């Protein structure tokens, strides 16, 4: 199934709320999308967070190769 970027972003949000972390390969496999499509949707997702949920940040953990939502510290 080929997916639109908004659908990819919604799927990422669902996985983040259910599993607390996502892997790029998991999203790509689930939705049959390319690496480029994943990163475009990821960029859209980050823009959304910046505009509408500025207290959250999407961080990448290189060791685990996962993305997760984390609250920004009050000091930032």
What does this structure look like?
The chain is of the alpha+beta class and 76 residues long. It has one domain: F-112 protein-like (Arc Repressor Mutant, subunit A, Orthogonal Bundle). It contains 3 helices and 2 strands. It has a two-stranded antiparallel ribbon with strand order 1-2. It is globular and about 35 Å long. The mean pLDDT is 88.
Given the C-alpha coordinates, what overall shape results?
globular
Radius of gyration: 12 Å
Which CATH class is shown? Mainly Alpha
Q: How many separate helices?
A: 3
End-to-end separation in angstroms reads 40 Å
> Based on the structure given, which CATH architecture is correct?
Orthogonal Bundle
The order of strands across the largest sheet is 1-2
- Derived from helix and strand composition plus strand pairing, the structural class reads alpha+beta
Order of helices and strands: HHHEE
| CATH homologous superfamily descriptor | F-112 protein-like
Mean pLDDT: 88
> Spans with pLDDT under 50 lasting ≥5 residues?
none
Share of helix, binned = 40-55%
> What is the CATH T-level topology?
Arc Repressor Mutant, subunit A
Largest beta sheet, briefly?
Answer: 2 strands, antiparallel
Beta-strand content bin:
15-25%
The total number of structural domains is: 1
The number of distinct β-strands equals 2
């Amino acid at each position: 199934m080929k997916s639109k970027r908004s659908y990819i972003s919604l799927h990422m949000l669902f996985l983040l709320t259910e599993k607390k972390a996502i892997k790029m390969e998991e999203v790509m496999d689930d939705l049959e999308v390319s690496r480029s499509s994943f990163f475009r949707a990821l960029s859209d997702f980050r823009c959304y967070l910046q505009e509408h949920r500025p207290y959250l940040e999407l961080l990448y953990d290189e060791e685990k190769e996962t993305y997760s939502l984390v609250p920004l510290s009050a000091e930032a």
